[in-house]
Amino acid sequence: MKSLTPLILLSLTVTLFAAETPRREKPNILWLVAEDMSPHFGCYGEKVIQTPNVDRLAREGTLFERAFTTGPICSPARSALITGMYQTSIGAQNHRSGVGREKIHLAPGVELVPRLFQAAGYYTANGGYYPAQRKGKTDYNFEFDPHVYDGTDWSGRKPGQAFFAQIQLLGGKTRDLPAELAKARQQLGDSTPTEKLPLPPYYPRTPGVLEDWAATLDAVRITDRQIGEILARLEKEGILEQTIVCFISDHGVSHARGKQFLYDEGTHIPFVMRGPGLAPGQRRKDLIEQIDLAAMSLALAGIPRPALMQARNALASDYRPREAVFSARDRADETVDHIRSVRTERFKYIRNFLPLRPHLQPNAYKDHKPGVIAVRAAEAAGQLDDVQRLLFAPTRAPEELYELAADPWEIRNLAADPAHAATLRQLRSRLDRWMEQTDDHGRTPESESSYDSDMAVYVGRKANPELQKNIALMKQWAREGK
């Protein structure tokens, strides 16, 4: 059994109750959670495609321009969101951990958001958009009671009962599944043309990369269409104006430099809310974290939040905006890594605790993504420039520092620049304080027995020689001190 150390309480970030918005009746709360999706929507400035339904949510509600996930991988991000806690504080930082013999249990006082809604009389549901997906994705790294969800759809509630529901959208994963991508394009009537697609400078303009980028935008388009259908259902049932609709993604798009990494492509997410208690047409420029949705949802329903919850209610009248947001990346399936970041409005600081390992470590899951395959093919063909070759460096800088206004793509590392030495020291210290104050469990490396416990399940599910080879390499590098 894994024993989680006691959480260290920080008075500036943890309070007994969230500020509440007085309400005469309970609103419904609906979370629309897309997978692997960056803010490629019109309301966020995307010009290539049209996204009328998410744009409508933004026009009629509140859009957070600078929202960031605390973990750029599915299960750590979802574990954080559903508890309103940093995944590193609850021992859930390693992707798909606790699946073997050694289990993870939440510390006393850490509560799941749906359980809090249940206790307040809400009907709780978690379902998928596709009818075949009866239960919605949870992907929590800890043990939990599945009865925190009463059903898979709000239609199961009692007459007049308010609901807290989640609909899990396939989102960016649509592009990874040929059958789903083909179905989406058939529904859309066309596919995004590749000729004039803008790309970040760290990706080459090869046919494979461009096609993958077009598929990514088509995944955004079909997700927007699905959100439109959900809104239409709420209107048809006459409950749209009693429902707070929240659209968010678990983390950024699954490109080579996105998902699994702490650059903005992996951490910047869409975050839009619309409904009673939310003024229309608001665009917020302050920094928020994805876990803040937990605190905001509870406050809008008039439900006190637990004393331990680290999420903040960014809608409270006395809210003090975050000066910085934090993200963490640890083991992803079989691939061991340890990265932390702190982002202010102006700067991003990244610390690579395993700098002797390559940026693109072998990973059986991500190495089969179309975008990663296309970038690796371009590298093998000698088609990359100096910036694009950074992805394939055999080692990483221990520290990275980027000035975001001047370098939004995060490609000019200023950590060794004497002109930014003071900023480097300040952000280094801020990250150290955060890890200490939030009881970052990643400060202690995962034990070999824990790793083996989860890997036994992985290997059992997937008789994959590539996976077994990667596991052996991770252990070799650990022995070598890499």
Helix-residue proportion: 25-40%
- Order of helical and strand elements: EHEHHEEHHEHEEEHEEEHEHHH
- Poorly predicted runs are 1-24
> What is the rounded Rg?
22 Å
What is the number of helical segments per DSSP (H or I, 4+ residues)? 11
Mean pLDDT: 93
List keywords for this structure.
482 residues, alpha/beta, 28% helix, disordered N terminus
Task: Please provide a written account of the structure.
The protein is α/β, with parallel strands linked by helices. It has 2 domains: 28-322, Alkaline Phosphatase, subunit A (3-Layer(aba) Sandwich); 329-479, no CATH class. 28% of the residues lie in helices and 14% in strands. The chain has 11 helices and 12 strands. Strands 1, 2, 3, 4, 5, 6, 7 and 8 form an 8-stranded mixed beta sheet that branches. Strand 10 and strand 11 form a beta hairpin. Helix 5 (207-236) runs antiparallel to helix 8 (370-380). The longest helix has 30 residues, at 207-236. The relative contact order is 0.18. Residues 1-24 have low confidence and may be disordered.
List the helices and strands and how they pair.
Layout: E1 28-34, H1 52-60, E2 62-68, H2 74-83, H3 113-119, E3 123-128, E4 163-169, H4 178-188, H5 207-236, E5 243-249, H6 264-267, E6 268-269, E7 271-274, E8 282-289, H7 292-300, E9 325-329, E10 339-343, E11 347-352, H8 370-380, E12 399-403, H9 421-437, H10 448-461, H11 465-479
Parallel strand pairs: 1-4, 1-5, 2-8, 3-4
Antiparallel strand pairs: 2-6, 2-7, 5-7, 9-10, 10-11, 11-12
Helix pairs in contact: 4-5, 5-8
How would you summarize what this structure contains?
The chain is an alpha/beta fold and 482 residues long. The protein has helices at residues 52-60, 74-83, 113-119, 178-188, 207-236, 264-267, 292-300, 370-380, 421-437, 448-461, 465-479; strands at residues 28-34, 62-68, 123-128, 163-169, 243-249, 268-269, 271-274, 282-289, 325-329, 339-343, 347-352, 399-403.
